[in-house]
Amino acid sequence: MDLLKPRTVPLSEETILWFEFLLKPSLLTKHLTKVNPDPSATDLITQFLTIAPESQNQTDVSTPDPDGGPNKAEGLKYSKKQLALKILALKVAAFIRWDLDKLERSLTVARQVQLLGDLCSITAGKMVTLPLSLVHESPAVGPDGSKHSLTFALTLYHRWVLRAQVIRAAVIKNTKPFNTHGPTMPDPAAFTLRDESSISALEPFTQLSIDFLNQLAQDPHAFRVLTYDSFVPLDSNTENTQQRFDSAIAIKPCELRAQIHYDLCQYYLYVQRYELARQNVLLCKENYAQWQREEIGRTGLPPAYCTVDTEGLKGYLLACGVTGEPDGLLQRLHESILNHYSDIVMILKEDNIRKEIPMTQRKLLELNIEGYNAIGSTDGNPIEQMELELAVAALNIIRYVMDGENILSCNVALQKYKNQLPKLIESLFQYADEQYEQFSLAEQEHLKRYFFKIISLYGEEQGAAIEGFVQTYSKVVSVQELKDFRLQRPSSDIQLSGIAVQSDWIIPESKNPRLELGQLERQLISCTSANAIRKLLVKIAGTNPSKPLFTINPSWSIPYALEQILIPLPRGFLQDFAYILIGKARELTARKDYPTAITLLTVLKNETQRPELVGNPLVAKLGKMVSWEGLLVQVQQVLDEWPKKPADLPQLIRNCKQCLNASVVSNSGAGDLVPHAKVLEHCAALLLNFNEWNSLLIQPDKRFPGVELCSALTQAFLDIEKFKGTKKTNREAWELVLPMFISQPGSRQRQLAPDSPLVLLIAKLRDPLVISIMLSLLAKLHNILKDETNLDMNAEYMFLWPTNVNNTSIYSIKLVSEALNLLLNQALKYYPNNIPWLKLKGDLEFVANNHEAAMRFYVTALISGTEYCTVHLQRPLFDDFLIRRMVRCSSALGCFVQAAVLCQFFDETDYGLAFKSISERSANFADAMDTYYSCIWDPTLLEFIVNWHYKRGEHKRRLQTISFLGQLELNANNNEEIKREAAAVRKNRFLRSLAKQYMC
User: Fold this and answer.
1) How much is the mean pLDDT over the chain?
2) Per-residue DSSP letter, 907
3) Which among 204, 513, 687, 918 is least buried, having the fewest CB atoms inside 10 angstroms?
């Protein structure tokens, strides 16, 4: 024996060959129950089906036999080896609970069809050819088949028919450039052209599958699911299959219906039949909720059949427009109104229990019905319409009463329907009696009191009728309670004494000092008049309080700089008066009651100038600080009311300049009183917004970064003015802003601090020029940190800033994006039609892959530039850069025809991109192709579409395109003026369609 002769490598002891599973079936169970079996369950199915030859099993869905069906041939035509392997594959599928999600992710389409064909054949006991052509008749089963098992197999197959078409579209879409593979999508590489044509062949049979599933969902009989033990592996002693179909388990009908309606919803969304999708997703949610209540959690075992995902169900609910509870009463109310008030009484009765519909909506409903009846509608019986109006009024009265408020509306309703009063009172008794036991005890008490009020008001007039109502509807007011109530009422001949009818009763006052002091303190907290505050302080001071009076309300707060002056003052009236007035002024400013706040500070300023206080240096400082505090309120008012300008704007600007100069003088050592940072930063921001550039050319204190930023932005503007037409790099503002975006190692900072100098300055910027300079800085920094040319953002004045940053890794681009977004939102709030800012906002959304939002802002910019499509769309409003981004957004959103139309907007039509986009339409239905024909002015593009429809056999659409191509204004022999006008008209038409899609 030659020891050097190569031999086969011995197999590992753990290696199991496929035939070993046949010899010893327990090996399959042992393998599948491992934590991470290798090969996996789906890999085993693939191996079993691959080994079994398919020469006698026709499973090619692309070539159905028109005469074939479940009854074509009796008995199974498998060899023994084939049958054994197929049973093993079915056992593995049963082990994973027939989860189509797993099978579709891991098996090719051919293997899926093969597995389903084997399941149908083995459960029927005879050969079954796919696709099925007879689904309305129950296929006869062979001698080894089982009717309920075949029903299970057919259900799985018909579910797959719907899901396969949805997944085919999703796979094709996800292989396009602007998409990524979803986490549950099959491998696109495994999806071949043959698979696509095979699944396309299922379309003629789709309605039969839908009918089968809908019929099954209505079937009251139990649905039985085949289990792992239902399939018996073959051994050497058996010649045919002897499966244990009786070991199938019965599941709750709600579990089956939840799964069926879930699959139907997916399919209807795919074919854009949204109303049917909505109906099915609501039924799915209802059955899924019932199944959770009845089954999940009781046995501790996984679901036997249903694979509905909670998060997926929520997503489909949102996709179908069900934003809240699908059975929400407000939603049902709107639907009832659209359906001529059908079931409106039941909805209002249910709402009296659940209280979901706002009373304003219910009152509007009552008025609508009243108006509907008043115009004399001939749609229905006038008597029935009047009864409906009274029923709605009665139910609204009951709701008002149970809410314990707005009883006046109840009395108004009783007066309004005085001519139909007996019928209205009867409706009140009827509806209250029907639901009385469902109301809470407090609500029952409210109702009882109100009904006694009705009896007291109308007892004499409607006595017999009310007594009859009480006897008929006795839950709210019983007969005995009515008798007792009437006995308690005084007779009309009783004469009351004079004191009983006296109305001016005098209540003696209690002389309790603590109560009096509490009342004075409450008045002090609530009043906003300086004179009233002065008088109240004098009164309270007369009680010899142990603490300063400004401590009465802990909510009064003053700036630290003012506190440093007030606290050293002797305890007394001035200290309390000043503290309280400043605290109240800050409260009023927060509530935007600026005039009252300024009035209080002016009174305090005058108080510090009284003759007896002139010589006190602390009081002089207090007066100066109070005047600056008043200036702060004025600046805040101007910024809040922008663009409205105050009448005394020149004086306000002078005061702001003096305030800034005070900080500079104090910084040089000539004085020791400095306005606090908030005052200085607001003054600097105001001067910046009113373009007082020279006033900001100062050397600000480093303690006031907000003032530094304003000064740096001023220098940037001066550079623009000084170096017109040339590039001048400005570093002052750049070097101030750059450190604000450093991401500290180990820091958990995920957003800009709300009290950072940059955020505070952004909130105060109002002037468009200043905002544009700041936007250019942030956009330039974002481009440098992103470092992707295709994702660069464009803004004005970007030439001002440096072109690179050292060590970009230490900066957070997320914080830059947040600051840019914050400033853009602030800017567009005041200037919503600023076209460069709208484009920049679109760029920011584009960079973040929010393509729909980006398109919305791009379209808004074009709409604003054309004055809402009243003038023609022309350059430089748009350029190739903007159009290319809009094309990419449309393609990413699946609107390929829209992208093709946009290709005409380039200087030279990009036919390659346009033709590619048109071709994409075959796999996507996100936009309607036909509606855009009237927006195409390029004959070459229309000719391509004509030829494309011809190749696809779409004769009607081809003729439609030819009709547009034959329009006179698109004739190639026209002069340039006619061609430009035709293009301009179609551009505006297309722009209006984009506005409807993205802006409405």
Assistant:
1) 80
2) S
3) 513
